[in-house]
């Protein structure tokens, strides 16, 4: 992440943009040195679990254990509690629980837990659309550009753009989110998709939004695309935007 | 016009007057000194409910600046946790009523509605952007912090922050200028 920001600092032509990227790098260094959050929005805890099918979990509910981990992490780590118990009555749960947990059953006897807290500002600017198959790759590109342009300064650019193409309505959104788990700028292993990622990144950075939306060439640091087979009638596209505070941690038990 | 903007920041001390606000132009770097009042969605809803009922507010808005932010908790021995700006657009429905009562500035991130931009012009106010996500760096400029209203809202309470050289950039000025519009126009590539 820091190396991506340093490269962005070199490439940005706007002086204000450069200064902002410098502030972001300085901020990350302060946060690391002083062990404080880089952003006050320490997010909704999103957890991806890969459970080996030979693993047997004993001693209570696995999901409760995850919630307890979130509770302790956010309380003992002085992280902000940003979750309300109901989307309409909006009372804070006080301990950042629950988490959003996704499970995948995989071969083997390992348990992999990946934690990716997601801030509200960039999440709010994400979007999904069910395109017509006839709109093809051009339709996909246009929707990604439209979403980033509409988001403008709100998701704290420079951003990382996660794109999910295919599957069903909800699968496309999940693909977009999963693509953000990749190391920043690591291309998709498929050469065609890697080309699409590169092309989208160039187009996004021509929009002129720039760091914090104040004008400049570095709007996105990376575009990550994931695809999945889809229905003969469908072309779902989801765009999940991540701010420059891309925070991920994984552990294998 | 943006090309001529100096990178040298201007120092501003709160409370601020109309004369000072009127001199600010989009793209200018400003260092705020004095006090900032934090306020997010929940606090704004409460303030505007009081205004609508003709009741007194728990803080004086005249000449003051509101910072759209909800800090993370302070670690022991620290003044405040990390405290970067939140998305200002969520406060757009409330902001014009506060501006009409003399609020001279707002600090946040992201675009404002036409209604807010109009109120900024009409009542001589200003909208500043702070760097979203630079929350640890920004927290260094906070020298004192106390909750002055709505402690029950936790991170959404109104905190009064004593700040020194709190760094912001002018986005919407009294002339109707909008840095988000001008910046993108200047840097969009045609080819």
Automatic annotation (TrEMBL), chain A:
Listed InterPro entries: Class-I_Fumarase/Tartrate_DH, Fe-S_hydro-lyase_TtdA-typ_cat
Keyword terms, alphabetized: 4Fe-4S, Iron, Iron-sulfur, Lyase, Metal-binding
Pfam family, one: Fumerase
Enzyme Commission code: 4.2.1.32
Signal peptide annotation: none
This protein's record includes keyword Kinase: no
Single GO MF annotation: L(+)-tartrate dehydratase activity
Family under the similarity heading: Belongs to the class-I fumarase family.
Protein name: L(+)-tartrate dehydratase subunit alpha
Organism of provenance: Sporotomaculum syntrophicum
Phylogenetic placement of the source organism: Bacteria, Bacillati, Bacillota, Clostridia, Eubacteriales
From TrEMBL, chain B:
Keyword 4Fe-4S recorded: no
Keywords: Lyase
Gene Ontology molecular function: any one: fumarate hydratase activity
Database matches in InterPro entries: Fe-S_hydro-lyase_TtdB-typ_cat, Fe-S_hydroAse_TtdB_cat_sf
Fe-S hydro-lyase tartrate dehydratase beta-type catalytic domain segment(s): 7-182
Domain of life, source organism: Bacteria
First-tier enzyme category under EC: lyase
Assigned EC number: 4.2.1.2
Family: Belongs to the class-I fumarase family.
PANTHER family listed in its UniProt record: L(+)-TARTRATE DEHYDRATASE SUBUNIT BETA (PTHR43351), L(+)-TARTRATE DEHYDRATASE SUBUNIT BETA-RELATED (PTHR43351:SF2)
Name of the protein in its database record: Fumarate hydratase class I, aerobic
Species for this entry: Sporotomaculum syntrophicum
């Amino acid at each position: 992440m820091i190396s991506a920001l340093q490269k962005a600092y070199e490439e940005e032509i706007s002086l204000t943009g450069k200064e902002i990227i410098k502030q972001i790098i300085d901020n990350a260094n302060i946060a690391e040195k002083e062990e404080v959050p880089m952003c006050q929005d320490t997010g909704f805890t999103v957890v991806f679990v890969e459970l080996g099918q030979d693993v047997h979990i004993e001693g209570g509910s696995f999901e409760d254990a995850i919630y307890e981990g979130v509770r302790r992490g956010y309380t003992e780590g002085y992280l902000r509690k940003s979750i309300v118990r109901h989307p309409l009555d909006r009372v804070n749960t006080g301990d950042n629980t629950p988490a959003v947990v996704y499970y995948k059953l995989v071969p083997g006897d390992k348990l992999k837990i990946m934690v990716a807290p997601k801030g509200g500002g960039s999440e709010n600017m994400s979007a999904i659309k069910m395109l017509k198959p006839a709109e093809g790759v051009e339709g996909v590109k246009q929707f990604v550009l439209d979403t980033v342009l509409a988001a403008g300064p709100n998701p704290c650019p420079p951003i990382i753009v996660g794109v999910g193409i295919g599957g069903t309505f909800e699968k496309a959104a999940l693909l977009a989110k999963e693509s953000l788990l990749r190391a920043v700028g690591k291309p998709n292993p498929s050469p065609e998709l890697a080309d699409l990622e590169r092309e989208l990144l160039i187009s996004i950075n021509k929009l002129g939004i720039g760091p914090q939306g104040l004008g400049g060439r570095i709007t996105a640091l990376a575009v990550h695309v994931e695809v999945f087979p889809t229905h003969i009638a469908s072309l779902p596209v989801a765009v999940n935007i991540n701010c420059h505070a891309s925070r991920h941690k994984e552990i294998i038990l | 016009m943006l090309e001529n903007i100096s990178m040298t920041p201007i120092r501003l001390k709160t409370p601020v007057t109309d004369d000072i606000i009127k001199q600010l132009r989009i793209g200018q770097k400003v260092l705020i000194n004095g006090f900032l009042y934090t306020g997010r969605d929940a606090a704004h809803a409460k303030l505007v409910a009081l205004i609508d009922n003709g009741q007194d507010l728990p803080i004086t808005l005249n000449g003051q600046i509101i910072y759209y932010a909800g800090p993370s908790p302070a670690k022991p021995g620290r003044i405040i946790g990390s405290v970067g700006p939140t998305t200002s657009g969520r406060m757009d429905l409330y902001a014009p009523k506060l501006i009409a009562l003399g609020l001279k500035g707002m600090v946040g991130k992201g675009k404002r509605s036409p209604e807010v931009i109009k109120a900024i012009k009409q009542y001589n106010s200003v909208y500043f952007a702070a760097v979203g996500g630079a929350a640890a760096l920004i927290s260094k400029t906070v020298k004192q912090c106390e909750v002055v209203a709505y402690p029950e809202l936790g991170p959404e309470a109104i905190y009064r922050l004593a700040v020194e050289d709190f760094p912001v950039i002018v986005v919407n000025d009294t002339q109707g200028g909008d840095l988000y519009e001008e910046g993108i126009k200047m840097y969009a590539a045609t080819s």
